[in-house]
Amino acid sequence: MLSDLVAKVRDYPGLKRKHAISMFVDVLEPVQDFGDTVLGFGEDAAVLRLGDEYILFSSDGIWSKLHADPQWAGYCSVLVNVNDIYAMGGKPVAMTNNISYMMEEEGRLLAEGIKDACHKFRVPMVGGHIHPDSDFLSISVSIVGKTRKLITSKDCQEGNDLIVAIDLDGRKRGELLNWDSTSHKASEVVLHQLGGLNEIAERGLVTAGKDLSNPGILGTIGMLLETSGKGAVVNLDTLPIPEGVDMAEWVLMYPGYGFVLSSQKENSEEVIRVFQERDVEARVVGEVIRGSKFVVRESEEEELLFDFEKDRITGIKMG
Predict the structure, then answer these.
(1) Which of 247, 202, 209 is nearest to 83 (CA)?
(2) Number of domains the chain contains
(3) Same domain, 142 and 217
(4) CA dihedral of 20, 22, 24, 28, whole degrees rounded to 10
(5) Given 19, 39, 204, 274, which residue has the most CB atoms within 10 angstroms?
(6) Are 282 and 270 in contact (CB under 8 A)?
(7) CATH number at residue 140
(8) Are 193 and 295 within one domain?
(9) Domain ranges, residue 279
(10) What average pLDDT does this structure show over 38-61?
(11) Are residues 199 and 104 in the same domain?
C-alpha cells in the first residue's frame, strides 16, 4: 500500500538524520557571508564569487553504515562530493580529506577507495588530515569546483515539471541501499554522463536541481521543494526504476548517478534528450505546485508525504 511506503520514507534514518541541520544553520547563519558568499546553507555546494566565475565549495562525511566496507566508504567519499559539484552545473577542481581509523588496514582500504574514485572521476586529492590513533573509523572529504552558470536548489517555480534522471545500469551494493552505477564503468563513460549537467546549466534549461542522496529519491525531492518553498505532486508510476527492484526499496536508494531537476514545461523534452543521449534514463515524474504539500500518487492511490508547513527535512527555506 502507498501509505506503507510513505511511512517508510518518513521514518527512514537517511532522511531523519537531516533534521539536525536546522540547529547548525541557526547557529552559523550569521557567519556564512563576509562579502563574497553568493549562496550558502541549503545548496549542494556553497557558491562564492571570484571574478567572472563562481567557486563551488562543499564537504561530505560518509554515513557510518558504509564503514563496514572501508574501500567502498572511501570510494563514496569522492563520489558524493563530485555529484554535489555537477548538481550545481560545475566541474570539480580538487579535494582534501579528513580520515580517522583504528587499524592500519582500515586506513589503507579507505585510501584505496579514494584512489579508485579519483581515477574514475579525474579529480585530484591534494591533501588532508589523518588521525591514525582514533578509536573509531570516519571519513569526510571537501571539494572545490567552478562554474559560470549555476543550478540552484532554491528556485523551483510553480508549474515546473519535476524530472528525475538516473543511470539504471547498475547494481545494488550488498545490503546497502546504494545503487552502484559507476564503479564498473570507464572514466570516460561516467564523465560523459556527468557532463550532461554542465550542458543543461550552460543552456539554462532548468530552474533548480539537486543530486539524489542519503534521504533517498523521494526524500531528496522533498529537500528541493522545502528549500524552494513549494509543494508538488509526484507520480511513482513514472519514476525510472531498474527491472526487478521493489519500489518501496528503490525510493530509499542512493543512486551513484541520480539527479532531480525542475524545468519549464517547454524545456522538459530537451532536458530529457540531453540525458538520454548520454545513456541516462530521465522522465517527468511530477509537477511543482503552490503551497507546502508534497503529494505522491501510485496507481489509483494518493498520499500526503510531507506538508512543509508542519514537517521539516532540513528546515531550510530559501524560496
Answers:
(1) 209
(2) 2
(3) no
(4) 170
(5) 39
(6) no
(7) 3.30.1330.10
(8) yes
(9) 161-307
(10) 95
(11) no
CA–CA dist 108, 111 (Å, integer): 5
* 91 φ/ψ angles, rounded to the nearest 5 degrees: -125, 135
The arithmetic mean of pLDDT across residues 75-104, rounded, is 97
What is the 3-state secondary structure of 213-269?
CCCHHHHHHHHHHHHHCCEEEEEHHHCCCCCCCCHHHHCCCEECCEEEEEECHHHHH
Residues in CB range of 133: below 8 A, 6 or more apart: none
* Strand, helix or coil for residue 38: strand
- Phi, psi at 228, each rounded to 5°: -85, -10
Give the percent of the chain with pLDDT over 70: 100
Same domain, 75 and 176: no
Answer yes or no: are the C-beta atoms of 120 and 187 closer than 8 Å.
Answer: yes
Q: Are 110 and 171 contained in the same domain?
A: no
Confidence of residue 188 (pLDDT cuts 50, 70, 90): very high
pLDDT tens-digit readout, 18-40: 999 999 999 999 999 999 999 99
The CATH number of residue 228's host domain is 3.90.650.10
pLDDT in tens, 208-237: 999 999 999 999 999 999 999 999 999 999
Dihedral angle computed from the Cα positions of residues 243, 249, 252 and 257, in that order, rounded to the nearest 10 degrees = -20
Question: Could you tell me how many residues make up the chain?
Answer: 319
Angle, helices 187-202/104-121, rounded to nearest 10 degrees: 60
Flag whether 195 is in a domain: yes
105-125 pLDDT, tens digit each: 999 999 999 999 999 999 999
> Which cell is 9 given?
520514507
Is pLDDT at 171 greater than 90 in this prediction?
yes
Q: Are 98 and 165 in contact (CB under 8 A)?
A: no
Residue holding cell 574514485?
117
